Amino acid sequence: MNQAEHVFAxxxxxxxxxxxxxxxxxxxxxxxxxxxxxxxMVQVAGLRVTKVVPWNQVIxxxxxxxxxxxxxxxxxxxAENIIAEPEKKDTAMAMLVGTLFAKSKxxxxxxxxxxxxxxxxxxxxxVHVMEAAIEIAADKKQIVTVGITPTRPDTGFxxxxxxxxxxxxxxxxxxxxxxxxxxxxxxxTAQAFLSTGKxxxxxxxxxxxxxxxIEAFEKYMPEMYALTKPLVTMQPAEFHSALAxxxxxxxxxxxxxxxxxxxxxxxxxxxDFGWNDVGDWKVVYDLGxxxxxxxxxxxxxxxxxxxxxxxxxxLIHTGNRLVALYGVNDMIVVDTDEILLIVHKNxxxxxxxxxxxxxxxxxxxxx
Length: 367
Prior knowledge:
Helix content is 31%, strand content 26%. It is α/β, with parallel strands linked by helices. It folds into two domains: 3-277, Spore Coat Polysaccharide Biosynthesis Protein SpsA, Chain A; 281-366, no CATH class. A five-stranded mixed beta barrel has the order 6-9-7-8-10. The protein has a four-stranded mixed beta sheet with strand order 12-14-16-17, covered by helices on one side. A two-stranded antiparallel ribbon has the order 5-11. The N and C termini lie far apart (49 Å).
């Protein structure tokens, strides 16, 4: 079989991104923002996967409120390939439904899964790793996860520990059995992980044949399997209309808890292609282009409305008015029409606490 023609890409684009508030909000979550390039995050993700698959084999799983936005930003994706989730049920349902849609179109479907909010610097190496993962997944026996080679002892990511070497895929890539998962360790544990050379960041980047994933759900999540099994034989219109009833009954659970941590056929291929999860404003700063004072200036337009004097190492996200800084260092300043956020770079992860307080106080207009 020529496996390339059977490969589909599923992009998950339904998340919220509360740590990137106030730009990332319910009406415009982070995947629709220009944070790291002239294109939005979801446009970058779409262009990246089309180096592996054609546009008509790209499937986007998103919340029903974002379907129009996906159509506007990714007009190359066929409308029937945009799957509208009636409600959020975490990654297990999103990935399963995307895979079942691919299988409904092609019984031999192989699926690469990616998120709409990741940055990948070396796209050539990304394609290389994906092609290697596809080669392994094509035997329908293995589920492949791409583990990111860690560059620092980060406590914000989950880690995957590798076991025995399984096989060489080519001269530079090997596949390993997965030994175990660890969720967001403390700093000392993360440092210890890195010193072993056996741990990789969990980027939720999976490649599998539809058959292998369905078999895994039948074994480890039988209720979810039974609930979704009829989708495989449906035509697109029927597939989409069936989702509302299915989602009402479906469990909300991540793919890691549902399948990955239980599966005995999970293998890992290391991915060393400059990956980053744009999870908070400090990451946007780290990825951004610095001026001579170490400031990163980003905005929705090509024109910068910023004046920074005696101010260093700041991230400044401008809107439609001038943002002027004097004697300010190591800060994040995000200006929108309705909201101004000022926070120290070291506290960027805590922006979500502002969102939580606004929810508690019922101030939905700011969410």
